[in-house]
Write a sequence for this structure.
């Protein structure tokens, strides 16, 4: 490969202008690849820059695409042409696509790398959809009143706010320290308008570029009389700017006999509750990246959390069996065999034979 700088005098002006071009005569493959415009296959070249000029020139002069004019096209484009567009377009990159070193070649030409990356991005977006290159990241903010044990997830960035916190400053500081595409805000069950003001302050302190998920905490123990008020407050959590997604307490949990979330929450443990929330978000086409349940106990609150499987194991339906000595605690001896003792009703009479009882009712013994 060789790169030359070619200088041209613009003779149309009285003042001489020097226009500098860069030319590349071959790619970076051990054996140079051969390129040609799709409609002029006879005009073959190893130079990516000459290929670009041929494509640009044939758009200005379509007659050069004729097979008989292939030599003229090659000769006319051997060196840069003043006034001709030197920016590669989609057709140029597609014609270069058989070369595996194109990504390296474009780095040597001014303006080519930008156009190459833009065209490649448009191709990926066309076939993979928008947002394919975006890596979702997440952090969690627990509003005042949410207990940490109600959120048994292992998250890299989690902030538990207190009533003493300067909410806007703390939230803004955390979001600046850990810039994430998603911010989960967990709120407690409440009927206070002042709490609604707090929740609004939190979501509005989050940068606009982040999507906010607002989710009620695990509702295992709450006053049913306040739920209607809480739902009304929850639905009124809004952002002044930016996107917000609500997981309402009234959303339906299908695998819990289509109960509403707040009713299903009463019969679910915290891990199962958050799995249900994750499924609801997925139905809204909202991801929860790096979702991992974690075991949190009093003994390990200050130690690194242990990750557990997100698949909940079904509890055994078998009743526990009694131990050998369990019966003595209840005031009766353990059952033995199938005889006619007190512990069995099978294989023998249910009534004692007074004639063989060791003691008579009058308290005297019939033993000799």
């Amino acid at each position: 490969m060789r790169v030359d700088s070619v200088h041209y005098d613009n003779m149309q002006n009285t003042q001489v202008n020097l226009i500098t071009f860069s030319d590349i005569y071959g790619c970076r493959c051990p054996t140079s690849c051969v390129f040609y415009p799709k409609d002029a296959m006879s005009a073959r070249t190893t130079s990516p820059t000459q290929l670009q000029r041929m494509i640009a020139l044939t758009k200005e002069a379509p007659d050069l695409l004729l097979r008989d004019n292939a030599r003229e096209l090659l000769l006319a484009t051997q060196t840069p042409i003043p006034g001709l567009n030197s920016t590669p377009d989609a057709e140029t990159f597609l014609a270069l696509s058989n070369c595996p070193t194109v990504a390296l070649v474009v780095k040597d030409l001014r303006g080519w790398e930008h156009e190459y990356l833009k065209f490649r991005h448009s191709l990926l977006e066309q076939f993979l959809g928008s947002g394919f290159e975006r890596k979702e990241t997440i952090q969690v903010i627990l509003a005042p009143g949410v207990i940490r044990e109600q959120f048994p997830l292992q998250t890299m960035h989690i902030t538990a706010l207190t009533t003493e916190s300067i909410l806007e400053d703390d939230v803004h500081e955390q979001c600046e320290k850990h810039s994430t595409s998603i911010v989960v805000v967990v709120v407690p069950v409440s009927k206070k308008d002042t709490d609604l003001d707090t929740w609004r302050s939190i979501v509005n302190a989050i940068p606009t570029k982040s999507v906010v998920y607002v989710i009620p905490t695990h509702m295992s123990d709450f006053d049913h009389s306040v739920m209607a008020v809480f739902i009304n407050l929850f639905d009124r959590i809004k952002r002044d700017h930016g996107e917000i997604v609500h997981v309402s307490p009234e959303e339906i949990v299908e695998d819990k006999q289509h109960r509403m979330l707040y009713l299903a929450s009463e019969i679910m443990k915290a891990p199962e509750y958050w799995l249900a929330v994750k499924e609801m978000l997925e139905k809204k086409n909202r991801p929860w990246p790096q979702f991992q349940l974690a075991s949190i106990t009093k003994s390990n609150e200050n130690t690194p959390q242990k990750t557990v499987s997100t698949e909940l194991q079904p509890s055994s339906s078998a009743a526990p069996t009694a131990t050998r000595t369990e019966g003595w605690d209840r005031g009766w001896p353990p059952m033995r065999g199938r005889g006619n003792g007190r512990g069995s009703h099978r294989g023998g009479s249910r009534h004692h034979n007074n004639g063989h009882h060791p003691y008579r009712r009058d308290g005297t013994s019939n033993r000799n």
Remarks:
- Residues 1-20, 296-361 have pLDDT under 50 and may be disordered.
- The CA atoms of residues 9 and 18 lie 6 Å apart.
